[in-house]
Specification:
Blueprint (H helix, E strand, L loop, with lengths): L8 E4 L8 E3 L4 E2 L9 H8 L5 E2 L4 E3 L13 E5 L9
Antiparallel strand pairs: 1-6, 2-6, 3-5, 4-5
Amino acid sequence: MEGFFIGQIILVSFNNIPQGFVPCEGQSVSPRNEGGHRWDAVYSLLGDKFGYDFAKNEFKLPDLRGKSPDPSLRYLICVDGVYPTPQ
């Protein structure tokens, strides 16, 4: 999705997940690029901060379920956007 950085977390009030985003639900993903997402780029930014399964070679995304200020809102993380670079 244009204009969003990989690893950027947004809070949304709608159920449809925009292309390039996934829910922040603590899911495990492989750092290989699969499913059209740039998981290697996501891993380079998040690392094992939210957990890592060495047996499966998978890292975890943040789990922000239940952390929203309103139950009708949900957090999404950008997994296919602009790679942030220092300026």
